[in-house]
Design a protein that fits this description.
Layout: H1 6-21, H2 30-34, E1 37-41, H3 48-64, E2 68-72, H4 79-87, E3 94-96, H5 105-108, H6 116-119
């Protein structure tokens, strides 16, 4: 997998914002047209996805000059939050911090009320964390 540097990502964001401003002048640019942008974190506060969501919200708020808030929607291994975004407004007012569990959710749950492949549109990879396994060794007494 190719790693993308922060500088390359920053240039991509800048290019995308410039390309978006080159469109029709009759409509407002993306962030201003939806007002407050909500970043949905499908887990409880305090975890890695929550921290990433809050850092991203802070940076996007500075960049876009609009309010960007984080809403934690925990439950059902992230399915409640993912479902809310999948079935919510499709105007860009909601961004989902997508957990790695999305890869196995369709195989674990038969009755999902959304299709992860059709109802969620990937934007970009924000962070990559290695998976680790911890082993505890004990002594038999």
């Amino acid at each position: 997998m190719n790693a993308i540097s922060r500088r390359t990502f920053g240039f991509g964001v800048a290019a995308a914002s410039l390309a978006g401003s080159a469109g029709a002048n009759a409509q407002q640019a993306f962030p201003a047209s939806v007002g407050t942008v909500k970043i949905v974190v499908p887990f409880a506060p305090g975890g890695t996805t929550d921290i990433v969501g809050r850092v991203l919200a802070d940076r996007l708020s500075e960049l876009w000059k609009v309010g960007v808030i984080v809403e934690n929607v925990p439950g059902a291994a992230g399915n409640i939050g993912m479902s809310r975004v999948a079935k919510g407004p499709q105007d860009g007012s909601q961004i989902l911090i997508l957990p790695a569990v999305i890869a196995i959710v369709p195989f674990l749950y038969n009755n999902l009320n959304y299709d992860p492949e059709k109802d969620l549109l990937p934007l970009t990879q924000v962070i990559s964390l290695p998976n680790t396994s911890l082993c505890a060794k004990g002594s038999a007494s």
